[in-house]
Amino acid sequence: MAASKLDIVVWGATGFTGSLTAEYLAEHAPATIKWGIAGRSRARLEGVRDRLCAVNPKCKDLPILIGDSSSQESIDGVVSQTRVVISCAGPFNKYGTPVVDACVRFGADYCDITGEYPWVRTIVDKYHEKAQAAGVRIVPCCGFDSIPSDLGTLMVVHYIKNKLGHECGPVKQYLVSMKGGVSGGTIASMVDIIQTQPDPAWLTNPYLLKQGSERDAPPHPDDATVRTIAFSKDIGKWTGPGVMAAINTKVVHRSNSLLHYGDAFTYNEVSGQKGFLPALLYLLGLGLFVMMMYFSLTRALLQRLVLPKPGEGPSKAQRDSGSFHVVVVGQSIPPKGTPSTSVMGAVHGIKDPGYGETAKMLAESGMCLALDRAKTPKVAGVLTPASSMGEVLIQRLRAAGMTFAITQ
User: Fold this and answer.
1) How far is it, in rounded angstroms, from Cα 161 to Cα 334?
2) In terms of Cα–Cα distance, which of 248, 261, 239 is closest to 332?
């Protein structure tokens, strides 16, 4: 049975991001890799396969696996046939846990696109030690949340420690620009976080995903959630709260707890704006949107009149015209008598960050897990992109057209 296993299965391939991820694999996966698509509806999966044939005619024989997210036995039947699961079926709080459970039991590595930090906390608590014992790598957050933050920070930390020979101190990420749309699946996940979050304090706890007692420590001032606007000399722009900080900071701090960046390491992120007034309007608009999403009546109004429905998302033209640019700035802690050095890195994507680039990041993560095990860290458990694949995944993403570079 092991010899006949697929290398990768895309679970949830009929969804918006799932179909884009399958399309990326159809175009970029090496001919030697054995992969397939999985979901509940054979008819819809056959429709996805037909569309993939326009990208790669060899997809006419692409394996289709049928699995029902409400049946553990059905999920087991899919997971038992592959070495890696790429999961795109959210909200993950509703549909993700049985897939992770099956991966741990059947020895399949796993990656996904979740940004649902309460659910990630749940699987850390429930499966980290089990996955370690099984030698399985469970890697959530392999899309725009949180690969640019997590791998961008790793790149800067490694430069400070390995090239300069210094300890790493504070690191700050700036989302300088972002052009892209949002899908109904993302909105559904956001709503699920709001409705199911066990403790409102989890939103602002940057250490929520750390191991052990570290997660309950009071935040260092440089780690605390940014709630105001400020002018940054690093990028020469006014900045406001990081739009993805609620998940990204938690993932980066989990990487720190697993990789030990240093005792002086802190991390936070903000969003760059074009001036003082745009920064102020951004702050007010973000606050209004969050407030409206937290109240059921205004949330329902937004969902009905403004926000996309599940299965909807930006068009191909919108995805292809999108982009993002992130700057990561780290401060070194040198030996006594040596001046500190500021190290600046850049992460850049050339398509819509939430979909075009997320499909790329997720698919490359899946291929990294499937094909590069001998090159990646010898670790297991509920991990992060940085702690599980690290520099090997950075190299893959560079080859796929993304920029990861030390610029100063």
Assistant:
1) 10
2) 261
